[in-house]
Amino acid sequence: MKNFEIIVYRLIAGETQIEEFEQWVYSEKKLEQILTSDDYLNLISLSYKQPSSLYEAEKILKRYVDIGKYYEWSLRRVLEKVIDHSENASRYIEKCYDLYCDGYNFLDNLGLGYGLSVVVPPADYIEENEQSRLIDGFYPAVAEEASKVIGWLNSGKIVITGHDGSYQGIEYNDNRTLQEKEPTSYKISSPKKRTWKFWQKN
Q1: Going by fewer Cβ within 10 Å, which terminus of the chain is more open, N or C?
Q2: Is residue 201 domain-resident?
Q3: How many domains, the chain?
Q4: Angle value at C-alpha 98, between 93 and 100, nearest 5 degrees
């Protein structure tokens, strides 16, 4: 992916420091070739002493990237953190639930099967020091679910096209088979080696 796109993505994600971005604007020689003359002039004329300058820069630059690809880039980073089982994996597993609620319905298995259990832990895992045991119990199944979603992105079975700006406004094309759309979250929502019964026989 081009450096320009990464810079813009990080800007949209709120990960860019003003000083770092200002230095990039003044040193990136290719900007004049990428932007229109008016947009380039507006960008270098911003007062980067003001925090609002990043928002103004975002309004200029986001017109030059595919916003759907930005959302895909952001989603991939979350999924990769889940797969890596990083120290703060719980944060990214919970994020899958947030994304599901934002309209990423294809994250049902991750969001409802695992993320919701981080937001509302089962009774046996309510204590704060029990969270790591809860998260560890999700592996390797949760990583396999995250890898499955990355596979859909790689193959074009899920193509994120953008966001309409509303609640649950994520827009995407879903080219998965009926079998791939079959929810499995109710089967895998509990940590391994624990059994959850949702019904009782008379």
Answers
A1: C
A2: no
A3: 2
A4: 95
